[in-house]
């Protein structure tokens, strides 16, 4: 029972990181509009870096099947199918409704946060020390990603309060993952591998088909270079977390 309570507490604390976007409430709309493209760029770097440097290697190691990349493809086109099912339209400048990619991002983040819960649960099942280490590592991984994710939701046309609320609802799936991970700790490896592979496909879809085209709309050379630099920074950040074992 102590282990389960520790898992719930740890995953809930990680979920609270979704509120890092609250600081933007103190910013004026004009200032927020200036930095929102940069937050999207950070999200691109985070999604791509997280997919290739974190999720994919871990998923292959867990799954160990020859058809691993098939699940990446399934994940990519699953998100495409979800997007077409929702039938949301991209906005035109000055007439922006909530972009489909915001909901795609929320779905992808839900899978990611659920898997974070599984990882935290697996750590605590082995030992409290490993559980705490896993929690801290995931928390460090989430902070830059949550900042980028909040920027994506704002850019999609959502209000600040709605973006914060939906981001928290998405983040709380880590608690669900932790509880399920605790009860299925001896049978979770193959399932978590498949879910990771699907998440990789989803993240690649969001970054490649929705976010990168938005960044490409910038025509100012200096801003474009800055956006590209931020994308690289996001990828390098994910690499540093990988390098120092923050997975």
- The parts where pLDDT drops under 50 for at least 5 residues are 87-96
Q: Kindly provide the radius of gyration, computed on alpha-carbon positions and rounded to a whole number of angstroms.
A: 18 Å
- Helix percent reads over 70%
The arrangement of helices and strands along the chain is HHHHHHHHH
Number of helices: 9
Summarize the structure.
The protein is an all-alpha fold and 247 residues long.
Provide keyphrases for this structure.
single chain; 247 residues; mainly alpha; 9 helices
Structure notes:
By secondary structure, the protein is mostly helical. It has one domain. Helix content is 80%, strand content 0%. Helix 3 crosses helix 8. The chain is globular and about 55 Å long.
What layout of secondary structure does this protein have?
Elements: H1 2-15, H2 29-63, H3 68-86, H4 100-126, H5 128-155, H6 160-171, H7 173-183, H8 189-216, H9 221-243
């Amino acid at each position: 029972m102590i282990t389960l309570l520790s898992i719930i507490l740890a995953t809930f604390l990680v979920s609270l990181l979704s509120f890092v976007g609250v600081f933007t409430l103190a910013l004026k709309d004009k200032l927020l509009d200036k930095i929102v493209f940069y937050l999207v760029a950070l999200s691109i770097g985070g999604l791509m870096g997280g997919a290739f440097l974190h999720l994919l290697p871990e998923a292959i190691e867990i799954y160990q099947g020859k058809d691993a990349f098939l699940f990446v493809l399934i994940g990519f086109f699953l998100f495409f199918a979800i997007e077409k099912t929702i039938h949301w339209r991209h906005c035109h400048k000055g007439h922006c409704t909530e972009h489909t990619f915001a909901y795609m991002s929320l779905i992808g983040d839900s899978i990611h946060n659920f898997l974070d819960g599984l990882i935290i649960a697996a750590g605590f099942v082995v030992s409290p020390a490993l559980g705490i280490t896993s929690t801290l590592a995931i928390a460090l991984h989430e902070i830059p990603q949550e900042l980028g994710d909040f920027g994506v939701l704002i850019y999609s046309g959502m209000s600040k309060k709605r973006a914060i609320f939906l981001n928290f609802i998405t983040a709380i799936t880590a608690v669900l993952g932790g509880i399920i991970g605790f009860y299925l700790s001896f049978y979770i490896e193959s399932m978590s591998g498949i879910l990771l592979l699907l998440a990789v496909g989803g993240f690649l879809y969001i970054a490649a088909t929705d976010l990168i085209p938005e960044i490409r709309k910038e025509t100012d050379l200096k801003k474009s270079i800055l956006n590209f630099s931020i994308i690289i920074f996001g990828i390098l950040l994910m690499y540093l977390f990988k390098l120092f074992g923050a997975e």
